[in-house]
Amino acid sequence: MRAVAGHRGLLRPRFAVAATVLVLAFLRPDCGRIEELPQRLGAATFGLLSRGVQGVAAAGPVAAAVPMAAPAAVAAAAPVAPPAAQVPEAGPAEAPPATGAEGASGAGGGGPSAGGDAAGGADPGLPDGTPEPARTQVGPHRAERAEAGPARLGSIAHETWVLARPGWDARRLGYLRAGALVPRAERPEHFRGCQGGWFRIEPRGFVCAGPTATLDPSDPLIELTGRPPDLGSLPYPYAMARIPPPPLSARLPTAAEQQRAEPDLGYQRRRAVDHLGRRFGLTTDLELLPLDRARLVEPSAFHGVELSDELTLPLAFVRSRYARRYRPHEKLGVLMPDGILGYREAVGLTGRSRRSGGRDYLEAQGGFFVLADQAVRVDGMATAPGWASAQRRWIDVSLLRQALVAYVGTRPVFATLVSTGADGIQDHRKTHATIQGSFLIHTKHVSTTMDGDERGDEFDLRDVPFVQYFADGYALHGAYWHDDFGTPRSHGCVNLAPLDAAWLFGWTAPAVPAGWHAALSLRGGTLVHIHP
Prior knowledge:
This protein is mainly beta. It has helices at 142-147, 220-224, 255-261, 265-271, 498-507; strands at 22-24, 43-54, 152-155, 160-163, 172-176, 181-183, 198-200, 206-208, 213-214, 238-241, 279-283, 288-290, 294-296, 305-306, 315-318, 324-328, 335-340, 346-356, 359-364, 369-371, 375-378, 393-398, 403-408, 411-417, 437-440, 443-452, 459-471, 474-478, 494-496, 518-520, 527-531. The protein has 5 helices and 31 strands. The strands form 6 sheets. Strands 1, 2, 4, 5, 10, 11, 12, 13, 26, 27, 28, 29 and 30 form a 13-stranded mixed β-sheet that branches. It has a 6-stranded mixed β-sheet with strand order 14-24-23-22-31-25, with no helix packed on it. A hairpin with a 2-residue loop joins strand 27 and strand 28 (474-478). It is globular, with a radius of gyration of 25 Å. The protein starts with 21 loop residues before the first strand and ends with a strand.
């Protein structure tokens, strides 16, 4: 993941091909230098903190609050994941944080390097019982939060690391994203290795007040980054770059600077809707994007179903856009059309089937039938695995059915369609297939960047939502760049519709504390079982 502090030089165009998604926040026109990133071929996506930045003139060379990178002592070598065949127990696991990269069609990998000693110790688990959907993170405006309540610590960097004890050699528990405010102790533990002091934060861990964190809740950078991410849907609004791709800037550019960077600026201005000339969006990397060179992303509306006594396994997801209900004719006894079924609609099944007119039908709980070749049938477990005991939460992913089921013990509580590796059940080491085996989730990001430089398959996916790494560069995560759930198409990760990704993110362990952007734990993560 690229740090905000790394930009140098002026007017270096970034070339973003295919999907480019940004996250925007409100920005004043006095926010520092204009810069653009190096040229890059690939699919780029940006999450936007705000779409409200407007105007073409920059007001003077006022420097932006660009945070410094964390001390080098925080960095750690990329760890090695456990063998795929190993079935983790409920206790300590060896699966470390992932740093790999995956392809544009179903991006995986590419999160910040997290260190092999990332999160020892016991982490609070999730309560037992039926899961509740992830809730949208809400709270008062930044200014209101700054005036009331306990002492707060704010993040002023893309990653502000939370450590298990006050020292740079401590294991990592997670990190905060720029703009986050979390409760802190009134006084620091000590100042060794940290000029501003090491402060305990809620619910656990320590942060160094310094280049990446501030004790001032009204810091301009915190006010700049706007509202916290939405944990009930997509974390941010997203935009996709048009072709030719947009330049990225560190402040609102002057008219002359825009003309130099964009030879076709006259055409772009004719398309703009703001009477001042143009509107800009601010990305989560705190870079400005001209919105007339991007389009807002409309995410998939598909979502899975929570299961209960009324709706449980077996069930079917309709996979045809032209599927119908069928009922037996009272006199003839043959199945006759009787209404229309929605595309990817979930239908509870009785478990019985029927053959009529040379075709197979599945009997639904409502007394009607569904054509078997127009639906994906999702059955319960034939034999419970050893880990499906008591109230343990775990996830089952079928590559052939492209289906995911969440369990509490032996009880299914959630089911949906997914998109796994495009190469099916082939060798994941040689193809774009999803790894098979049983793993523990060890690293969770509200959003993170995934990119790759493989020739002919370059991509740059910013703020991929609700990423949950479980092995090497493989993760469960939301996908805003396609709506093909139920069809294999990723480079190995398990793609989920954004609403499903948000639900699972709030249901699995390790839990990400309020205000944090990521959490790491090598113990007690939710088990993910992937099989044909």
